[in-house]
Amino acid sequence: MAEADEKPSSLSAGDLLVSMIGDAASAVLQDDSLSVRNVHDTRTAIRRLRAYLRTFRPLLDLPWLTGLSAELQWYQQSLAPIRDLDVIYKWLDAAKDLADYVDDASAIDAMQDILKGQRNKARHVFIEARSSARGIELLNKLDLLSHEVPLGARASNSVKVFLPLVRKARRELQDAERIMADSPGRSHIHEARIKAKSLRYACEALTPHLGRSVAKIGADAKGIQDRLGGILDNVIACEWLEQNASTDPSVAFSAGKLWVVGMQRWEAARSRLGN
């Protein structure tokens, strides 16, 4: 990666870290209605914050960072069941538009009713986690973090100190892509997508300060993230169809047809990754 192709920001690395991490922490604490949009936005804010903590780790206070990263992972995983159910609901919506499945529309409606009930239960489980002592402690830490970011000694350098960290994150993504190409299983695809997310979010935050070369890396990472996300969404939908809809006689036949479509997409995508 070339050095910044625009005049670097006059901010120090620490100034920028305080801004980006503080904003991400504040975003996690926003509206807690748990609507589809809010769940998406909250998970994105958590992912951004975790990406900053992971990618810019050498510039932050290490003992503080280790504990917070683990708690953020727990919080994100607590939201994951709601997000997965929303993904499956949307996946079934798209299936209604397929000409071959016009006759299956009522069965898909019934499956979506099942999803609504499961989402309501998952929502209550998350609310209990958020209201627990662990959840309240994390939210208090995030509130503090939105105003005060513990920095390491290197954070006093100019924003150019971010460049080798971006290079390192890009190498990690390239390594994950090579592993995925050799063995395109779900875990390796998921790991590559995590690396792509981290790189994308870091580059998006740095682009205004480091220029177009960083923006290009971020755009490429987003493309990888989106492509792998679409692949994994098929897996999530197929697992749900197999575990839930296949046991209900009123929707089992339609669910089986949809499962075949999802698995065909999954296998085709895996084959392309391996080439």
Task: Please explain how this structure is put together.
This protein has 275 residues and is mostly helical. It has one domain (13-273): Alpha solenoid (CHAD domain), CATH 1.40.20.10. It has 9 helices and no strands. It has helices spanning 13-28, 36-55, 62-96, 105-131, 133-145, 163-182, 186-210, 212-243, 252-273. α3 (62-96) crosses α8 (212-243) and α6 runs antiparallel to α7 (186-210). The longest helix has 35 residues, at 62-96. The chain is globular and about 65 Å long. The two termini are 26 Å apart. The model has no long low-confidence stretch (mean pLDDT 89).
Helix and strand pattern: HHHHHHHHH
The total count of helices amounts to: 9
CATH class: Mainly Alpha
According to CATH, what is the topology?
A: CHAD domain
- CATH architectural grouping: Alpha solenoid
Judged by helices, strands and strand pairing, the structural class is mainly alpha
Shape designation: globular
Q: Give the overall average pLDDT.
A: 89
